[in-house]
From TrEMBL:
<dbReference type="GO" id="GO:0005783">
    <property type="term" value="C:endoplasmic reticulum"/>
</dbReference>
<keyword id="KW-0676">Redox-active center</keyword>
<dbReference type="GO" id="GO:0003756">
    <property type="term" value="F:protein disulfide isomerase activity"/>
</dbReference>
<dbReference type="InterPro" id="IPR036249">
    <property type="entry name" value="Thioredoxin-like_sf"/>
</dbReference>
<dbReference type="InterPro" id="IPR011679">
    <property type="entry name" value="ERp29_C"/>
</dbReference>
<dbReference type="GO" id="GO:0006457">
    <property type="term" value="P:protein folding"/>
</dbReference>
<feature type="domain" description="Endoplasmic reticulum resident protein 29 C-terminal">
    <location>
        <begin position="70"/>
        <end position="158"/>
    </location>
</feature>
<dbReference type="Pfam" id="PF07749">
    <property type="entry name" value="ERp29"/>
</dbReference>
<protein>
    <recommendedName>
        <fullName>protein disulfide-isomerase</fullName>
        <ecNumber>5.3.4.1</ecNumber>
    </recommendedName>
</protein>
<dbReference type="InterPro" id="IPR036356">
    <property type="entry name" value="ERp29_C_sf"/>
</dbReference>
<keyword id="KW-0413">Isomerase</keyword>
<dbReference type="InterPro" id="IPR051063">
    <property type="entry name" value="PDI"/>
</dbReference>
<keyword id="KW-1015">Disulfide bond</keyword>
Amino acid sequence: MFGTRTPTRVTAVAYDVCGFPTLKFFPKSNKAGEDYDGGQDLDDFVTFINEKCGTSRDTKGQLTAKAGIVDTLVKEFVSAGNDEKKAVYERIEEEVEKLKGSTARYGQIYLKASKSCLEKGGDYANSEIQCLECMLNKAISAVKADEFTMKENILAIFI
């Protein structure tokens, strides 16, 4: 019906696919796609996708312990004395305002955690992590599990 110009052949020629398997990454900014020339195992491919997409997933699709970590000024906040914490918090606020995309969402979690540590004391992060771990052990949706894991990862920096 299509002769030698099958849709598969046309697509292969259009994207310079000469052999199989050929993997290409198609970011929004590049309709031609980028060749994948990394390793052949799943870990290599997942690393490539995480780097290209700004994600932090493992080979099973779950968030890793690095998900959501943009620890701007947090280490300074944690080590600061009570009098200095407010000044560092204000700097965190300024930095969070500059964040874009998914990091802006993470920044809001950092900001909320910083504020709660100021108001409730240093033990806030530990007690909040315990609550999150209890919720993660229940039957919850994958979206909620991702959200709670990200919060847990961020809170761990405040300990």
